[in-house]
Amino acid sequence: MLDKNGIAKRIAKEVKDGYYVNLGIGIPTLVANFVRDDISVEFQSENGVLGMGPFPFEGEEDADIINAGKQTITTLPGASFFDSATSFGMIRGQHVHLTILGAMEVAENGDIANWKIPGKMVKGMGGAMDLVASAENIIVAMMHTNRDGDSKLLKRCTLPLTGVGCVTKIVTNLAVLEVTDQGFKLLERAPGVSVEEIKNATEGRLVVDGDVPEMRI
Q1: Is residue 101 packed enough to be buried (19+ CB in 10 Å), middle (13-18) or exposed (0-12)?
Q2: Helix H or strand E encompassing 134
Q3: Any idea which residues carry the catalytic annotation?
Q4: Which SUPFAM superfamilies would you find in this protein's record (predicted)?
Q5: CATH number of the domain to which 48 belongs
Q6: Is this model's pTM higher than 0.90 or not?
């Protein structure tokens, strides 16, 4: 199965030349480290940054340059900084081609819960509510199960929803799945992971159509 960097590396294959991409908090922030060098991509953060680069190496951090998750970042030549109103104007105006989010739960119909666990402290919703309401292409990066081994790919979300029917694709440590009218369609298996293992880890409806290839990273 994949670790967090493996998930990010697989998602980076979904990033195309010329895309404007928003990276959510958590695993999605790692995607910028694995995008091909021969394509041009603009990473946007809702706190007002366009042109984010990879994470800085230890000792090279600049505390004044952060993403929406308050993590230190780097910027690429030509990067720009602006206020949140402009940033959310980009998001709400559907100028972002791809949104990559983390999630606590995803339902088989594409509902996502990623902003609140009742009774627990979390970093906050950030711009997730606006992103899921505006974006047409949302990929979720997440672990397939929680720490207790329970599935995070459900028939229905149990946590407060961030968005309804908005997720298009999910990449986990076990698989790549597409959200369809029939449920989670299994597209690829993580290296060394069987279809049976994925079935056992998925509570929602899982659609398996023929042989499922092992993902190439």
Answers
A1: buried
A2: helix 128-134
A3: 46
A4: NagB/RpiA/CoA transferase-like
A5: 3.40.1080.10
A6: yes
Q: Which residues contact 44 (CB under 8 A, 6 or more apart)?
A: 20, 21, 22, 23, 50, 52, 87, 90, 91, 96
Distance CA 12, CA 48 (A): 22
Contact between 133 and 163 under an 8 Å Cβ cutoff? The reply is: yes
Q: Is 214 within the bounds of a domain?
A: no
Per-residue pLDDT tens listing for the chain (217 residues): 899 999 999 999 999 999 999 998 889 989 999 999 999 999 999 899 999 998 898 999 999 999 988 889 999 999 999 999 999 999 999 999 999 999 999 999 999 999 887 877 666 566 888 999 898 899 999 999 999 999 999 999 999 999 999 999 999 999 999 999 999 999 999 999 999 999 999 999 999 999 999 998 8
Count structural domains, the chain.
Answer: 1
Give the DSSP per-residue string, 156-178: S--SPPSBSS---EEE-SSEEEE
Instruction: Examine residue 171 and state whether it is found in any structural domain, yes or no.
Output: yes
Could you tell me if residue 151 is inside a domain?
Answer: yes
Residue span of the structural domain in which 141 resides: 4-207
Closest C-alpha among 36, 29, 33, 37 to residue 14: 36
